[in-house]
Amino acid sequence: MVIDSGTAIGTLAKRDVMNCIGEGHNIRECPVAKHMRTPIVSVEATADALVAASLLMEKGMDGVPVIAGSDLLGIVSLSDVANVFAWPIATLLSRRTGSFGEWESARRGGTAR
Predict the structure, then answer these.
(1) Helix, strand or coil, per DSSP, at residue 1
(2) What is the DSSP letter of 28?
(3) Does the residue 10 lie in any domain?
(4) Rounded distance, CA 40 to CA 72, Å?
(5) Is residue 28 part of a domain?
(6) 103, pLDDT greater than 60
(7) pTM above 0.70?
(8) Whole-angstrom Cα distance, residue 85 to residue 65?
(9) For residue 61, what are the contacts with CB-CB under 8 A and spacing of at least 6?
(10) Which value, in Å, is the radius of gyration of the alpha carbons in the chain?
(11) Domains in the chain: how many in total?
(12) Residue 111: is its pLDDT beyond 80?
């Protein structure tokens, strides 16, 4: 988040900094405003993980700010969203095969019980 006088005015992610460097700019002298993203794309704290995942993918973002009203609560990343969806899938797979190891063996052509 880029904050000016207590107000969020944009976001700056690792890929924005890498673009700055790739354009030959000196990151110690280049103003943040030149590479920050505006307007701020965010999700409300009450939004579900699918909303955050959609924004991350559609906007090509590294992370999406989570807000409650005008308060920044945190940033959700793709790995955060992946973890939300991985647990139910892993649970279902382990119930079906008995364990992840057996599932992996079955997937590779072995047998599962």
Answers:
(1) coil
(2) T
(3) yes
(4) 12
(5) yes
(6) no
(7) no
(8) 19
(9) 11, 13, 41, 55
(10) 20
(11) 1
(12) no
* Distance between CA atoms of residues 61 and 3, nearest Å: 18
Residue carrying the six token digits 């969806």: 85
Tokens of residue 99, six digits: 């364990």
- Can you tell me which residue has the tokens 């000016």? 4
Q: What are phi and psi of 48, to 5 degrees?
A: -85, 170
Residue recorded with tokens 């207590």: 6
What is the SS3 string spanning 51-100?
Answer: HHHHHHHHHCCCEEEEEECCEEEEEEEHHHHHHHHHHHHHHHHHHHHCCH
Residue tagged 């880029």 (tokens): 2
| Domain enclosing residue 70, as ranges | 2-76
> Quick check: helix, strand or coil at residue 19?
helix
Residues 50-73 have pLDDT tens digits of: 899 999 989 888 889 999 988 889
